[in-house]
Write a structure and sequence with these properties.
Elements: H1 2-10, H2 14-20, E1 84-85, H3 87-104, H4 107-110, H5 116-119, H6 132-135, E2 142-146, E3 155-159, E4 167-177, H7 186-189, E5 194-204, H8 205-210, E6 219-222, H9 227-232, E7 243-251, E8 257-263, H10 270-273, H11 278-290, H12 303-319, E9 330-331, H13 335-340, H14 345-348, E10 353-358, E11 365-370, H15 381-405, H16 410-415, H17 417-424, E12 428-430, H18 433-439, H19 458-462, H20 471-484, H21 489-503, H22 506-514, H23 520-529, H24 544-555, H25 562-579, H26 582-589, H27 596-603, H28 611-624, H29 629-643, H30 646-655, H31 657-662, H32 670-677, H33 685-698, H34 706-721, H35 724-732, E13 748-749, H36 756-767, H37 769-776, H38 782-792, H39 805-827, E14 832-833, H40 837-844, H41 912-919, H42 934-946, H43 949-962, E15 968-969, E16 975-976, H44 978-983, E17 985-993, E18 1001-1007, E19 1010-1013, H45 1021-1028, E20 1032-1036, E21 1040-1050, E22 1054-1060, E23 1062-1065, E24 1070-1073, E25 1083-1085, H46 1095-1122, H47 1131-1143, H48 1146-1149, H49 1157-1190, E26 1200-1212, E27 1215-1224, E28 1230-1235, E29 1238-1242, H50 1244-1247, E30 1256-1265
Helix pairs in contact: 12-15, 12-17, 20-21, 21-22, 23-25, 24-25, 25-26, 27-29, 28-29, 29-30, 32-34, 34-35, 39-40, 39-43, 40-42, 46-49, 47-49
């Protein structure tokens, strides 16, 4: 082949050349100093916009004849020089330089860009702020380089000329290619532009060791090189014709120097880049034929062969090591050379010489192309420039060749195998990782595609920072850039704020808040965000209240996004700084969190804890982290608003004096305070507090400081009036009854000995106005009741029992006692009254215990009457009425012994003839004194201590009913009266055979309260009721397999729920109390338990039943996996211990051989993984299913009850103390604690306290139907003026 002849002639074979290249590219003899080829291409660029470096910047204390010892800063006072950039910013500028200039110089931008005139075709030397907004609009170039340095050397390291012992110079040469350029054909490839970059770094090792600062290096632009550096960088020519852009940056701490040069393509004409296109190659072939040459068609080269030939032409002089080596020339008459390229360009464009030679043998003259001598590049500047130009040509050809390979056909690739081998052996890379090594600065050189999108945001570019920079480095960059460019400090401040919010960095946000700077861009954005029209009113004169009203109106928008909120908050902060408004700044700094959970997380507390614990948590957090005080204040403010807690607001004002500037009594006049609360100056303190509480607890939040304003106004009123009542309320958040007139607070009940739960019960009944009114107006006698029954000719039953006359007499007397007490509670001037001993005795003594009363003539009512009396023993116990703690609790959660089955034989039913005999006595009834001995009273009170509270409730209700005239009778003669109207729940128990041919069996049951079982571990009140009303599958002899269902057919106006907490320990033979929490809420919806003909509800209940069954199975399986054996090990722990034993030496040491030990260990490991997987799956599935079940009935909320009474027992099963909480719907829905003679207002958090381990547990919950709320009236006082 003619091509081989040419290649052999010029002796540029790749293999042989590789042998000639000194592998020690870093040796001193091969150190290279790059140069630029001076060519007449383009125009010289005078960079008039470069920063003029003052003489003081370049150290002149050393004479130029002296050597640089490497320990002195050559460039001083750099801190005042602009621009300054980080190394990462410099790298991005290199990659974005040409794309940015294309945008700037485009026709559509030429007349609109603000800084166009200042660019002067240079991006590298411009401050970031000049081009930062354009950066995101361009795609950066890719930087390509040669990985191996054997064939072509493009990376150099050499010693400094002026300080060879301490300073070094490193050079990188690469190409810049627009990766968006696509070439589908060889003609397209000729349009690809490949630019060049050269980066030279001079490192002063002594200064790096002694003066290197922590953090980022800051590089300042300089115009002139120090004379010492000029000697080391002789190849640099800022006026080179093919130089696109350049810049010199020097670090302020160690004077590390970075010289960046970006060049035009070496093959800068379309003619040159087209030499390898098919059309041009064919033209050269036709030209050869015209010249009389006779190349065959097989000699027509491919494009890759043309590039390879040209590459080898330029590579030859680069591999020549010494001037003593022969110069390898190329015969000008070689026909193949003419087919591959235009040989004349070697002289006219590429610096070759035409040499006339004579053949020694024939004497014929011929010409050859002689390449330039590049061996003397160390001392000759022009040689270095030519050598550098040749190197760039080789790089350009290499990357063209790499791209062309993908465009060649299969036939062309087969034909060009030798050329392909040349380019395939050359490893290239498109990576910026070289820059990290070159700069020797940690964290730079990240691939552009792996960087955050924030890094090309103009805010980050303005400060020359990246998203991953530390807060310390970002702050330093802001401070230094603001110092060197103070005219644009507003823009830099805007950028810092954006970065702070983008990173969510408290440190940066706090730092920004300390700076009194407002940038124009931020100001304009803030004005636009608030939609302010400044055409009429200047921003400086705009009232703060107007801005705040706009802001708060936006916050009320339910569709407000988090992004919009952040923008509004940033805008408000800008406006506050611009207006120098302390009030606006206060609002934005201490704005409550939108999400209350964020506030609790900040203080690291749970939402269920009390206010005093919140205060403690706040104090600990602030003491441990003083820098977080502002955030802690915001959190405390947020929680105080959410809870509407006066005590938390007081604590906030005490710990943050800034709040006192805006929310104290001094901020209101007396008149304006009254106006805010909308009360008259003649209103009493009690009325003012009532209005305040209504506004405080019920009024919508018009602004997040609304409560603080209300509190400040009330403080002013308290001060003006010198009101002890209001002042005490402001200090504690609750009303002090001692400061109130008696008529403004409920009456307490003194404890006369073990009567705490009786007192709680009586206060509860007193709060039910229909029941209280009935008792207060009670005037009936036994005769009235008996005559009414005889007149109607009926026999009534109370609780399934027929009452005798003696029981009725006792009941009437009990009501009279209760009437007197209730009357005293209403009309007494005292804050507490004492129940009579007769009332306590009648309440505690069982209803079938006979009580004697003195008649009007002083004779005993029981004279000459023989009756059977139940003896109350000396221990105070009625042996027939002991609580059976081991009662049989059914699967539905009910204590079967407490259910009344009206269809069964009643064990304690009095025989009809005995009732008639007793009723013939008919004593005359009047208010009488019970004949109770001190021993009897003491025994009764002792009984009260031991008695279950439900027994007391039963005694009281039984006597109230026995003393009532029936309103009607049920079919079974059960009496209907006011109490049943209030409390009675009718349920329907259905036995439904699964065999549809058999009819269901229904039974109606009556209950005055529902019983839920805490022993079933319900997670809340709904779960407990679900267990109570749970369907059961049973096997019955008569029906076979059946489903037993339970539903409510009639709902009471007042729903009572008893919580079964006392159980019997069979091992210790003692009762014990469960203190397991049972969460409940203010509202209870009973739709799911009603007998309703609602298909959707029925379907939902069926679906819930299936899900609960599945949930029970999952929990059962979870319990199995977590259960422990007799050694206290779970299943997983047992396997782990077994594995450890098998892997230890214990078995081998004891001569125990375990067959297939390895296999067994593998099986154990597989089992462990399976247990972990199953437990994880179970946990997630249980959590999701519980959530789904809890949300299933949200659409069924028509039967609504509101909580209004909670009975509490604190202590153990055999002792303790009782009190009750009662809600006053008519007094701003406050809760009061009725603790015998003491009645106090309490916060909701005390009532809804479900903390584990709390022995003060609810045992009786009372809900009132939504339409009957007005029947609840805890406060009923009528006190006359005269004592």
């Amino acid at each position: 082949m003619l091509e081989d002849t040419l290649i052999n002639h010029i002796e540029y074979e790749l293999d042989s050349e590789s042998m000639d290249v000194d592998n020690d590219v870093n040796s001193t003899s091969n150190l290279q100093i790059d140069s630029n080829v001076s060519r007449d291409v383009g125009t010289d660029v005078e960079l008039s916009d470069e920063i003029q470096v003052p003489v003081s910047v370049i150290g002149n204390e050393m004479g130029l004849n002296e050597l640089d010892d490497g320990s002195k800063l050559l460039y001083q006072n750099l801190m005042n020089m602009s621009p300054l950039k980080t190394s990462e910013r410099i790298l991005d500028d290199i990659l974005s330089n040409i794309p940015l200039m294309k945008v700037i110089n485009s026709k559509e931008n030429c007349n609109t860009l603000r800084y166009n005139e200042q660019f002067n075709n240079s991006i590298l030397k411009q401050p970031m702020i000049e081009y930062s907004k354009l950066r995101a609009t361009v795609h950066p170039d890719s930087i390509g380089s040669i990985v191996d340095q054997i064939v072509i050397q493009s990376k150099f390291e050499y010693k400094s000329v002026t300080c060879p012992n301490h300073n070094k110079i490193e050079v990188f040469m690469g190409v810049l290619i627009d990766s968006t350029q696509k070439a589908n054909t060889l003609d397209d490839l000729s349009n690809i532009i490949i630019n060049h970059v050269k980066i030279t770094v001079k490192t002063r090792t002594v200064l790096e060791r002694t003066r290197r600062l922590m953090g980022l290096s800051k590089f300042h632009l300089v115009k002139e090189l120090h004379p010492f550096d000029q000697k080391d960088l002789l190849t640099f020519d800022k006026n080179a014709a093919n130089l696109i852009d350049h810049a010199i940056y020097v670090s302020e701490d160690t004077n590390k120097l970075i010289l960046i040069e970006i060049f035009n393509p070496e093959f800068d004409s379309q003619e040159e880049r087209g030499l390898f296109t098919p059309n041009v190659i064919n033209q050269r072939y036709l030209h050869s034929l015209a010249e009389g040459e006779e190349p065959s068609t097989e000699d027509i080269p491919t494009g890759i062969e043309c590039i390879n030939t040209l590459f080898k032409v330029f590579k030859g002089p680069l591999t020549r090591k010494s001037s003593n080596d022969p110069i390898k020339r190329i015969n000008s008459d070689n026909p193949i050379l003419r087919l591959h390229m235009n040989p004349e360009w070697l002289v006219s464009k590429y610096g070759f010489n035409m040499v006339l030679e004579k053949d020694v043998e024939t004497g014929d003259e011929f010409t050859e192309y002689e390449p330039p001598d590049l061996t003397d590049y160390v001392s000759n500047q022009q040689t270095r420039k030519i050598r550098e130009s040749v190197t760039r040509k080789c790089l350009e050809l290499i990357f063209f060749g790499k791209m062309m390979i993908n465009l060649l056909s299969k036939e062309e690739l087969e034909k060009s195998s030798k050329s392909l081998r040349t380019f395939n052996l050359l490893q290239t890379s498109f990576s910026t990782s070289f820059f990290k090594l070159l700069i020797q600065e940690r964290g730079v050189g990240l691939p552009i595609e792996n960087q955050s999108n924030y890094n090309i945001d103009y805010h980050f570019i303005n400060l020359s920072v990246s998203y991953h920079y530390s807060e310390r480095d970002i702050i330093q960059m802001f401070e230094v850039i603001s110092k060197v460019d103070p005219d644009n400090i507003g823009h830099y401040y805007d950028s810092l704020q954006f970065i702070a919010n983008a990173k969510g960095s408290y440190q940066l946000i706090a730092y920004c808040s300390k700076l009194d700077i407002v940038g124009q861009e931020s100001l304009e954005t803030a004005i636009k965000t608030f939609n302010l029209d400044l055409s009429v009113t200047a921003l400086s004169s705009l009232e703060d209240s107007v801005i705040m009203s706009i802001y708060q109106a936006e916050l009320k928008n339910k569709s407000l996004s988090q992004e919009r909120h952040v923008n509004l908050r940033n805008a408000l902060q800008v406006l506050a700084s611009y207006k120098k408004s302390k009030k606006l700044k206060f609002f934005v700094d201490y704005e409550p969190y939108l999400n209350t959970r964020t506030a609790y997380n900040m203080l690291e507390i749970d939402e269920s804890i009390d206010d005093d614990i919140i205060q403690t948590a706040y104090s600990i957090k602030v003491n441990d982290a003083p820098g977080l005080k502002l955030d802690c204040d915001r959190a405390l403010y947020t929680i105080a608003i959410a809870r509407r807690s006066i005590s938390l607001f007081n604590f906030l004002l005490e710990n943050n004096l800034i709040f006192q500037e805006y929310y104290t009594a001094d901020t209101f006049s007396y008149t304006s305070a009254l106006s805010l609360l909308q009360v008259n100056e003649n209103a009493s303190d009690e009325n003012i507090l009532e209005v305040f509480q209504k506004k405080w607890f019920e009024e919508a939040m018009v602004a997040f400081d609304h409560l603080l304003k209300l509190k400040a106004a009330l403080t002013k009123i308290a001060f003006q009036r010198n009101s002890k009542l209001i002042s005490n309320f402001l200090e504690t958040g609750v009303i002090d009854p001692s400061c109130l007139p008696a008529e403004n607070w409920p009456t307490g009940l003194n404890n006369i000995g073990n009567t705490c739960y009786l007192n709680s019960l009586l206060q509860y009944y007193f709060a039910i106005s229909p029941l209280r009114d009935e008792i207060i107006n009670y005037t009936k006698t036994v005769d009235d009741i008996e005559n009414n029954l005889q007149l109607q000719g009926i026999t009534r039953r109370v609780g399934g029992r027929v009452t005798n006359t003696i029981e009725v007499e006792r009941s009437v007397q009990f009501v009279y006692q209760l009437r007197d007490l209730f009357s005293e509670m209403i009309y007494s001037h005292s804050r507490c009254v004492t129940p009579k001993k007769e009332l306590a005795y009648l309440a505690f003594a069982p209803s079938n215990v006979e009580v004697e009363f003195d008649s009007e003539d002083g004779k005993s009512q029981r004279d000459n009457i023989s009756t059977e009396t139940v003896d109350v023993g000396a221990d105070g116990k009625n042996d027939n009425l002991l609580v059976d703690f081991d009662s049989n609790i059914g699967a539905n959660g009910r204590d079967e012994k407490l259910l009344v089955d009206l269809d069964s034989n009643i064990s304690d039913k009095i025989k009809e003839e005995e009732v008639k005999k007793i009723n013939t006595l008919k004593p005359v009834t009047s208010t009488r004194v019970a004949k109770i001995s001190p021993d009897q009273l003491e025994n009764a009170l002792e009984m009260g201590r031991q008695q279950d509270v439900t027994e007391c409730i039963g005694n009281v209700l039984n006597q109230l009913e026995s003393a009532s005239i029936p309103l009607s009778l049920d079919d079974d003669e059960e009496q209907n009266d006011l109490l049943k109207n209030c409390f009675l729940v009718k349920t329907k128990q259905s036995i439904i055979p699964l065999e549809k041919s058999k009819p269901p069996r229904n039974k109606i049951e009556r209950f005055l309260s529902l019983l839920v079982n805490i022993g079933d571990h319900p997670k809340n009140i709904y779960d407990a009721l679900d267990l109570y009303f749970n369907d059961e599958l049973l096997q019955m002899e008569e029906y076979g397999e059946v489903r037993k269902t339970l539903s409510i057919t009639e709902f009471p106006s007042i729903l009572q729920i008893q919580i079964q907490r006392v159980y019997y320990d069979r091992e210790k033979f003692i009762p014990f109390k469960s203190i397991e929490p049972l969460p409940f809420g203010n509202v209870l919806y009973m739709d799911r338990y009603a007998e309703l003909d609602n298909k959707e509800l029925i379907d939902t209940k069926n679906k819930a039943r299936i899900m609960k069954k599945e949930l029970a199975n999952m929990k059962k399986r979870q319990k199995e996996l977590l259960s422990r054996n007799e050694l206290g090990l779970s299943r997983k722990e047992s396997l782990i211990e077994t594995k450890r034993l098998l892997m230890s030496d214990v078995l081998d040491n004891n001569g125990i051989d375990v067959p297939m030990k390895t296999s067994l260990i593998s099986q154990i490991e597989a089992n462990l993984l399976e247990i972990d997987r199953e437990l994880t799956t179970l946990f997630n599935n249980i959590r999701d299913m519980e959530l789904n079940i809890s949300n299933m009935f949200k659409e069924f909320q028509s039967i609504k009850y509101n909580l209004f009474a909670v009975f509490i027992h604190r202590g153990e099963a055999s002792y303790g103390h009782y009190w009750t909480y009662i809600k006053d719907f008519q007094q701003n829905s406050i809760w009061r604690k009725y603790n015998d003679e003491t009645i106090t207002e309490v916060p909701d958090s005390e009532v809804f306290n479900f903390i584990e381990g709390n022995t003060a547990t609810p045992y009786f919950l009372v809900y009132v139907k939504n339409e009957n709320i007005d029947d609840i009236e805890p406060l009923k006082r009528i006190v006359s003026d005269c004592a």
